[in-house]
Amino acid sequence: MVWIILVIVGLLGGTLGSLMGLGGGIVVVPALLMLGGLSFLEITPQVAVGTSLLIMIFTGISATLAYMKQGKVDYKSGLLFFGASGPGAIIGTWLNRGFDTDSFQIYLGLFILFVSFILFIRKYLKPLPRSGKGIQRTYKDEEGMEYTYGYRIVPVLAIAFVVGMLSGLFGIGGGSLLVPAMIVLFAFPPHLAVATSMFIILLSALVGSVSHMIQGNVNGMYALALIPGAWVGGTLGAAINRRLSSEKLVFFLRLMLIVMAFRLIYEGMTSV
């Protein structure tokens, strides 16, 4: 029964993570902690994060391949972001070592509430005026609409570093911050932002998961149960992103995240 639950968790995390460029850890980490709290599994915050990052590699590969076929990944921008998010992921992995289960649940719950707020306001966010300085790129969508977006190197590296650090710390991928930043600050078209975010998350997850493996924070048996669902979910999320409006799923995700967040905060505070 536990393995079936893990497959479902992997599928849900992979689908929602790929659909909105979040990476899937925002679902997997709280779910693992809750299963551990119910005595189904032996899960520490470090194992939850390390295993989640390993799963995000497969979600990232699956989703990135699907988005590559759609021509929606900006590789040059993605590699630039990764130049800072990779080191950030290593530092986040190191910071994660200092958490016990109770404090981790509280901080993760607060961060998830912040993510749910970002998801709530994301559709209202409009790109800020650009000065025309820095790197400029163009993108033409499937309907022939051409978009211009751009960024400066220093803000990109600063944001990417924070995203990578959060990925290594919480195992959540960082896309919840990365996608809105790409849309608002750099005027990325939303679909391009989601696809490129998954590419960056894939690279950051590779670095973060290796760091956690070295520290013994990855449970191979749990990962084997989560990977099939995450792989299928990564492809499924990319397909849904292409064909459907994601508003209803975003609403469902926000509701689910809020419930998870309050449960994590409650369990962390009552155990202190």
- Largest β-sheet summary: 2 strands, antiparallel
Distance between the termini: 31 Å
What fraction strand? Answer: under 5%
Radius of gyration: 17 Å
Structural class: mainly alpha
Number of domains: 1
Write out the strand line-up for the largest beta sheet, numbering strands in chain order. 1-2
Shape, per Cα inertia axes = globular
Number of strands: 2
Per DSSP, the total helix count is 10
Main location: membrane
InterPro entries: TM_pro_TauE-like, TSUP/Inactive_protease-like
Protein name: Probable membrane transporter protein
Pfam families: TauE (PF01925)
Q: Helices, strands, pairings?
A:
Elements: H1 2-20, H2 25-37, H3 45-70, H4 75-96, H5 101-121, E1 135-140, E2 146-151, H6 153-170, H7 175-184, H8 190-214, H9 220-243, H10 247-271
Antiparallel strand pairs: 1-2
